[in-house]
Amino acid sequence: MDKVVATALEAVADVPNGATLAVGGFGLSGVPNVLIEALYERGVGGLGVVSNNCGAMESGLAVLLSAGRIARVTGSYIGANKEFARQYLAGELEVEMIPQGTLAERLRAGGAGIPAFYTPAGVGTQVADGGLPWRYDGSGGVALASPPKEVREFDGTEYVLERGIRTDFALVRAAKGDRHGNLVFSRSTRNFNPLAAMAGRVTIAEVEELVEPGGIDPDAVHLPGIFVQRVVALTPEQAAAKMIEKRTVSG
Q: Are 34 and 56 in contact (CB under 8 A)?
């Protein structure tokens, strides 16, 4: 099946207001910027986003966040995104913060058809006990807090029950992909992109290099095409547009 779609706008044409999205990327690495820009152009809003972070340096999900298009974020890291922090503290944005490894496993579990799993991460904290601020009231008070989760003991160790995550759509970026949707990710872009792709009911991948079926060694495939419904081939300019979050030098 040829899953290639001509343009990013066409690929996201059926994403409605209020949709939930799993979005790949780690910092500025592997972020599906072209698909995010297409959503911005369409004017889609009220989105529920699941992603490690919510964009940085006015790129990635920060484009939608700054435009007020995101209603809820499930993630692990606010970092230096001042607008993310401002909206959260002002009560404009609902935020569920999750330990990073738990977020990764919740996405993977959802994609694998596993409804829930137990993990020791967060036991004895508000992650398990509840009370984490999901939404502030704008005056410093908590308008909505996380509920307590089930904790169970196995072999003398306590574990907290975490739910798998499924979303309406997933947006990911791959270094290479074929027309059947088989994808290859480069280095740290492999952190969250395959997991986000698994979690989406409809997964859209932008690829830096599109090859014909058979052009990827089966042993090199990081994500099989069964998880991908649409593929958008980037132009050379789009593929080369990669930002650096923090430049460092050594002497």
A: no
pLDDT for 245 equals: 67
pLDDT digits (tens, 9 = 90+) for 11-43: 999 999 999 999 999 878 899 999 999 999 999
Dihedral of alpha carbons 235, 236, 239, 241, sign: negative
Nearest alpha-carbon partner for 204 in 75, 21, 18:
21
Alpha carbon distance 59, 243 (integer Å): 9
> How far apart are alpha carbons 169 and 32 in whole angstroms?
13
The string of DSSP letters for the chain reads ---B-S-HHHHTTT--TT-EEEE--BTTBT--HHHHHHHHHHT--SEEEE-SB--BTTBTTHHHHHTT-EEEEEESB-TT-HHHHHHHHTTSSEEEE--HHHHHHHHHHHHTT--EEEESTTTTSHHHH---EEEE-SSSSEEEEPPP--EEEETTEEEEEEE---EEEEEEEEEEEETT--EE--GGGGTTHHHHHHHEEEEEEEEEEEE-TTSS-GGG-SB-GGG-SEEEEPPHHHHH----SS-----
Tokens 């001042």 appear where? 82
pLDDT tens digits, residue range 141-176? Answer: 999 999 999 999 999 999 999 999 999 999 999 999
Say how many C-beta atoms besides its own lie within 10 A of residue 245's C-beta: 12
94-97/70-75 β-pairing = parallel
Residue 118 has pLDDT above 80, yes or no: yes
